[in-house]
Amino acid sequence: MALRRDLAGSRRETPEKADVERETLDVDVLVVGGGPAGLAAAYRLARLNEERGGEPLIVAVLEKARAAGAHMLSGAVLDPSALSELMPDWKSRGAPLDLPVRDDRIYFLTAGRALPFPITPPPLRNHGHYVISLNRLAKWLTEQVEAAGVDVFTGFAGTELLYEGDRVVGVRTGDRGIDRHGERKPAFEPGVDIRAKVTVLADGVRGNLTKTLIRRFSLDAGRSPQSYAIGIKELWDIDPQRLAAGSVIHTMGHPLRFEEFGGGFIYALPDGRLSVGFVAGLDYRDPLFDPHVAFQRFKRHPLVASLLAGGQMVRYGAKALPEGGWHALPRCHLDGALIVGDAAGFLNSMRLKGIHLAMRSGMHAADVAFRAVRENDVSAGRLSEYARLVEAGPIRRELYPVRNVHQSFAGGLLAGLLYSGMSLLTGGWWFRDPMPAHAGHERIRTVAKYFGGAAPPEPPSAPIDRELTFDRLTNVHYSGTRHDENQPSHLLVADTDICRTRCMEEYRNPCTRFCPANVYEIVDADAGEGKRLQINASNCVHCKTCDIMDPYQIIDWVPPEGGGGPSYEGM
Amino acid sequence: MILVVAEQRGGALNPATWETVAAAQQTGESITVALVGADVQKLAAELAAAEVAEVLAVEHDALEPYTPDGFVAALAQVMEKACPELVLFPHTYQTRDYAPALAARLGRVFIPDCIASKVRDGQRVFVRPMFQGKFMADVLPQGPAPHFASFQIGACRADACARGAAPAPVREAAVEIDAAAIRQRPEAPFKEAKQAVDLTQAERIVAVGRGIKGQEHLPVAQDLAKALDAELAASRPICDSGWLPMDRQIGSSGQTVAPKLYLAVGISGAIQHLVGMKGARTIVAVNKDADAPIFEVADYGIVGDLFEVVPAIMAALEGEA
Q1: Mean pLDDT over all residues of chain B?
Q2: Is there a single domain that holds both residue A212 and residue A156?
Q3: How close A186 gets to chain B, by Cα (Å)?
């Protein structure tokens, strides 16, 4: 049984000293997060300002990355439907969608072989879609948004929501210049209060602000628990002759077992650049499972290794993604705020796509926020129009029929495939709807339970040759991650005693395996006796996996000082 | 009339003063400069070279050395008599220290850290950066004049300060200061001694890593560094644990070095460390693990326990001596 702790007690205290004078900035709509959902919302608002005339709404976007798009990571194959509606002239505006998908292949991998699927199932057909870099898309979208008159503040993380009663009235950005002991450095600069009539939360998968909002208002009451996966990806430069640009390959099977959800992907970008990644469900039972090792083993499979041999890894990154689908969506409207994109969970796990839904949700939110501000009514009742747009529009049309797909994989790969195939005919019907689901951290078993009391094996490993396969630390280097070293840890572990006592015994410290960036290490205690948890916070690539998967739910991810984090150039 | 408050210390003007005078000149208004201190006639004459209407020498024995109470009292009296519409300061540490108190004493607004001022709809607004310069705000001062503003250093160029055809008149402005009412007793100014090691200048470096196991074993590496006349450095885990100060860290989050000799003891050679030292001319590595990546960059590698290898090196060095 997972031990639940009150995270409120573990939050980093921001003692409000009397001498802190905060700047405030008033806007009409504040978008928190410069990803596809947030940027689509901002762009739509700018367009509405132009089309509707009158006093324009003041719109601002906050983005924690130092540079636009630097924290964006996806496969990615883009369904351009939402972009085309948002910006019909995206082509002439130079959108970085220049590579249409040319063919789709799916393989089932055994340890040594790759068995092609005879046909590509309809949800995985990518005709008319584009192989893209989400980093480049977000960078370009940011330029469009700025040109349309919206201020995008990069390098500023929203760390707290501002409330008036129960109404969200904006966001406080993080203080800068706090040292690792919590003391002010000479360059201390207090965070800014940005007050907004409507706050659009686009803080991404397991967003730190959305998380507190969901807890405070029980927005997930009566919904299925959200489930997640972790995606790990590398960019490679290989001989362009090996795989034609625009090729899309998906795999199932090896190195995962039937009980584990996930699979690999290989997308060929122009000029011999390859996007190679692996997605593993964060709802595995085996406490010794290691997503990073699974990715290394995937690359060692002959199908992948033959493509990568002699090539060079140039970038690395990891990010969690929401897999729960329709039934796991929380209530996304409340007094003064709307939740969009991955923060809410708008992702189609059957089509392996979320960017277009994120953008679509941002556009709906913009429409509603614009009208609500104009009518001077930003109550939850007025903003509930957002839920109606989601219900009546393409989002539900796409997500509802596959509402039980991810859940069906809880019964294993075969059950999942069977159900998924069947759902194409039945429209997603099942005897129990919603199909029961459990949060991932509740599914992970203790070592004793999983191995039935037998002596557990050594945790899985893969040979590291630093050519095809890499250790975590080397990989982190290629993520371009930088944080100011002299700042408090942004990974709050409520009780590190649990790590060296209970968790070591019960789960063998799964944080050292599920973290793809070597943030968590169990090292010898200073006194030379026993072990202790060491947190290498400056390695963090902001994937949020620890916050999601920790079995005791005692890890709280909060934003580090603005600007810190990975640099996903070209990812 | 605009009052510019000049800044001096130890017989020299703070050059930011000229920048603030230049900012005031751009408004086209009449300018008075006030210089506060105990004996400022000479500097006041220097200031009079600028194209301004007048220079006020605000002198009192209690105004040297600088104290916030003394300056607030003196300038409050100057303002009562001169009745400026606007008071400009250079945005120095000293201004930051007392100007907010002065504004509060007089019940006036203070707009600090401006980079420009301009007239919008017939009213003077001040431009100041927000969000670390990503955004410029036009600030319209409220309430009765005079309004206070300070100008960021470098916002105007000192050489843009126009010189007058003839020196401006210098006038003594008498102020009454009750020395007993000054609550601050300044000590002599001092500079914090900078003792950070500059590893980039070291010819030889002995760097120690996790293989050292515990802080109590550090003397092993320290002695070796001493014997080789080398600086001691470390990989990240050592500095993270606080066993050595962070200014001895080599690597992507520490210093990048290129000494003639780099002796890596118990360092596995994570890429984050390698990028900080791979430019060294000769790299010698001691590590237990023959597969450690440090050996990929090492010119000489010794696979073995550092607690056996280092004493052997020490013995060999002593034998040589």
Answers
A1: 91
A2: yes
A3: 12
